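Homework help board

Subject: predicted structure for assignment chain

Our instructor gave us this sequence and asked us to write out the predicted structure in token form, then describe one feature. I got the tokens but I'm not sure how to describe them. Can anyone check?
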Amino acid sequence: MLPWLSFALAAAPALILVRYFYRQDRARPEPKGLVLRVFLVGVLSALVAIPVELLVGLFQRSFNPEKVWYPLFKAFIVAGLVEEYLKLTVVRLTAYRAQAFDEVMDGVVYTVVAGLGFACLENILYVLGGSLATALVRAFTAVPLHAVASGLMGYYVGLARFAASKRAERALIARGLLTAVGVHGLYDFLLFVAPRWGGWTAVLVVPVIVVGFLALRSRMRAALAADGGGLPQGGQRGASL
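My token output:
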């Protein structure tokens, strides 16, 4: 494909999903400037992930490549834990203490945006110079996976922002991180074992994404209910994307 077409096809899925999740908080949308900042720092976090994953990946050498522990470590630790922790760090550095972060749903929005910033650059690196098939497959698998995993974490980040104590806050953030790592790791594990176990494991990533998205929708409804049913509280802070 032409470079400009590859770039467009790689970036479009993340941008479309950013718009979708941004609009879920219609009553009090987040400031566009802060959303853009979170997205761009999320993009940069994908660059940070490269050397960190290479470093953590060195520990894979302690596992026998023929045993299941090898792909498990690679999926849940090298990919899942490193990438989801970086997304969490993006939110904590950019939006977590911002005045605009004043609802549980905001945790979902900002964390999804950070995750999609990460996914955007990752997808560009995969798709540039690749085929149309690569772009289409990743548009419906890898990019939504990042949104789902980050969004589930974001729900707990939103709860943590208004926790009654530091201990409760840390516990909620840890729960969110573990949830994201679990979903992300399972997705990658099914792909990593496909060459050995058969292509049927790769097909299973689709129900993982679908079930994860349904779980995220349920948590978004819970967040909006906790925020007062999504009713305006003091006017809008942003504008529709």
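Reply (TA_rk): Your tokens look well-formed. For the description, you could write something like this. The chain has one domain: 3-226. That's the kind of observation they're looking for.
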